[in-house]
Amino acid sequence: MSSKHTKVLCRSGIILRYMPVAALIFDLDGTLSDPVIGIGRSLNYALEAFGYRSLSAPEVSRYVGPPLDWAFRQIVPDVSHDTVLALVAKYRERYSDVGYAENTLYPGVADAIAGIASDGVQMGVCTSKRREFAERILELFGLRQHFNFVNGGDVGVGKGDQLRALLDRGTVGPASTMIGDRAVDIEAARVNGLGAVGVLWGHGTKAELLRAVPDRLLESPMELAGLYGGKQVNRTAP
């Protein structure tokens, strides 16, 4: 992980002082990659283990992006907190083994991220999933080296809390922009005074994103470079 520093001269010598920077902060699921297969199979693995009805493929998309404990509370309402924690633990049992790799990088993302990094733009990932899983997924797709930080969530931690912590620690500056495919990404950015950009290639609908009032909507990863003034990426056919 790299940091941005400014050299300050004083009588005692040179001091390295951390300076918060404007960064592009990316959501992971539904923004950089499509994890719907691994998430769906892992959700059903947990649900079936506790005797609950499994989800159909179309139902899974709704639960890609928001925190895992929220997802289980929506799927099986009125269960106890302990049951939610048990479902989360069961889910992670399978997800840690194989689910994280049942994942597909969206076409054009790799080229776009590499291009932004080559222009020296600070980038990070802020995801509701645990950091260890996010790190493994980024490594799987050969993207980890492009990001200055990876911030993961956990049960009871909202994305707004995660962004606030990044600001409080000086990891990112107040001119940073959050980029994601769900309303939760836009709302988290808004509550923290950050820029908010929605992407339309993920699991959130256009109507959902518009209700959250993003600064901008993108239809293709090739448009990501336009967020900082770079040139759009002309992706070659896969």
Task: Write up what this structure looks like.
The structure is a single chain. With 238 residues, this protein is of the alpha/beta class. It has 2 domains: 138 residues, 3-Layer(aba) Sandwich (Rossmann fold); 66 residues, Putative phosphatase, domain 2 (DNA polymerase, domain 1, Orthogonal Bundle). Helix content is 37%, strand content 17%. The protein has 9 helices and 10 strands. The strands form 3 sheets. It has a 6-stranded parallel beta sheet with strand order 7-6-3-8-9-10, with helices on both faces. It has a two-stranded antiparallel ribbon with strand order 1-2. The protein is globular, with a radius of gyration of 19 Å.
Task: Please give a quick description of this structure.
This protein is an alpha/beta fold and 238 residues long.
In round numbers, the mean pLDDT is 89
Q: Which strand order does the major sheet show?
A: 7-6-3-8-9-10
The level-1 CATH class of the largest domain: Alpha Beta
CATH fold node name of the largest domain: Rossmann fold
Kindly provide the radius of gyration, computed on alpha-carbon positions and rounded to a whole number of angstroms.
19 Å
How far apart the termini lie comes to: 30 Å
Number of strands: 10
Which descriptors would you attach to this protein?
single chain; 238 residues; alpha/beta; Rossmann fold; DNA polymerase, domain 1; 2 domains; 6-stranded parallel β-sheet; two-stranded antiparallel sheet; 10 strands; 17% strand; disordered N terminus; disordered C terminus
Question: How does the SSE layout of this entry go?
Answer:
Elements: E1 5-10, E2 13-18, E3 24-26, E4 33-34, H1 36-49, H2 57-60, H3 68-75, H4 81-97, E5 104-105, H5 109-118, E6 123-127, H6 131-140, E7 149-152, H7 159-168, E8 177-180, H8 183-191, E9 195-199, H9 206-211, E10 216-218
Parallel strand pairs: 3-6, 3-8, 6-7, 8-9, 9-10
Antiparallel strand pairs: 1-2, 4-5
Helix pairs in contact: 1-4, 3-4, 7-8
